[in-house]
């Protein structure tokens, strides 16, 4: 079941759209502000984002640009009340994959969602994130606050393993075994300490990367 984030502040509209799309076998999560949608996107990735152009705390176009800064392949459909050529150009310039004008037929919206998902695919498993960090597994790219971060191979694999186990405390021994010692070669414990230090520096010392004293490390959503 594909998960869709629906960013809409009009509850009467969002409830009707949610009910209809869930009958089409989608799971819909509604966000009434751009800020709440961004917060959710920092910790998880849906199959598609459906966003209204005019929101109380900003523009859906700006949210689309924010998404593109860290998740270039995540499909976005913008909804607007204006069928204006300038708006259409602006929508696609911001990185939107499609553009639907209100009021719309629910069947038409569903058809456009299916078309975009067929074209783009479901990328929900492609991205891992925590706090302001996003990792694209397919392209092996890492972003922090929208900025691409260049990591060494060991830094990348360390971050990937931490993100894959988000919320779990990983011991130093386990990290050494999984990231460096998978071939049975001895690795000095200091290797992890040095690599972690460099990783933190490159990611601007993220609050979501926790040190568990005398045990290991944990990626944790929150701050």
How many helices? 8
Q: Whole-number average pLDDT?
A: 89
Kindly state the percentage of residues in helix.
40-55%
Report the strand count.
14
Distance between the termini: 30 Å
Walk me through this protein's architecture:
This protein starts with a strand and ends with a strand. The protein is elongated, with a radius of gyration of 20 Å. It is an alpha/beta fold and 223 residues long. The longest helix has 15 residues, at 106-120. It has a five-stranded parallel sheet, with helices on both faces. It folds into two domains: 2-120, Rossmann fold (3-Layer(aba) Sandwich), CATH 3.40.50; 127-219, Arc Repressor Mutant, subunit A (Orthogonal Bundle). The mean pLDDT is 89. The chain has helices spanning 11-23, 34-43, 60-70, 85-93, 106-120, 153-164, 172-180, 190-202; strands at residues 2-7, 26-31, 48-52, 54-55, 58-59, 76-80, 98-101, 127-130, 133-136, 141-144, 147-149, 170-171, 209-212, 216-219. Helix 6 (153-164) packs across helix 7 (172-180). It is built from eight helices and 14 strands. Strand 6, helix 4 and strand 7 (98-101) form a beta-alpha-beta unit.
């Amino acid at each position: 079941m594909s998960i869709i984030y629906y960013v809409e502040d009009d509850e009467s509209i969002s409830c009707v759209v949610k009910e209809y799309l869930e009958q089409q076998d989608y799971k819909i999560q509604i966000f009434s502000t751009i800020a709440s949608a961004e917060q959710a996107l920092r910790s998880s990735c849906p199959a598609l984002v459906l966003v209204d152009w005019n929101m109380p705390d900003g523009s859906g176009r700006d949210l689309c640009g924010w998404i593109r800064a860290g998740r270039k392949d995540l499909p976005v459909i913008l909804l607007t009340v204006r069928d204006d050529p300038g708006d259409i150009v602006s929508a696609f310039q911001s990185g939107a994959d499609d553009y639907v004008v209100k009021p719309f037929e629910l069947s038409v919206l569903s058809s456009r969602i299916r078309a975009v998902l067929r074209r783009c695919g479901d990328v929900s498993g492609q991205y891992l994130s925590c706090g302001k960090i996003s990792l694209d597994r397919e392209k092996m790219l890492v972003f922090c606050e929208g900025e691409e971060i260049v990591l060494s191979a060991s830094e990348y694999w360390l971050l990937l393993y931490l993100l894959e186990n988000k919320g779990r405390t990983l011991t130093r021994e386990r990290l050494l075994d999984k990231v460096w010692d998978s071939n049975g070669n001895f690795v000095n414990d200091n290797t992890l300490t040095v690599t972690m230090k460099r990783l933190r520096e490159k990611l601007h010392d993220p609050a979501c990367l926790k040190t568990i004293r005398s045990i290991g490390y944990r990626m944790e959503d929150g701050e």
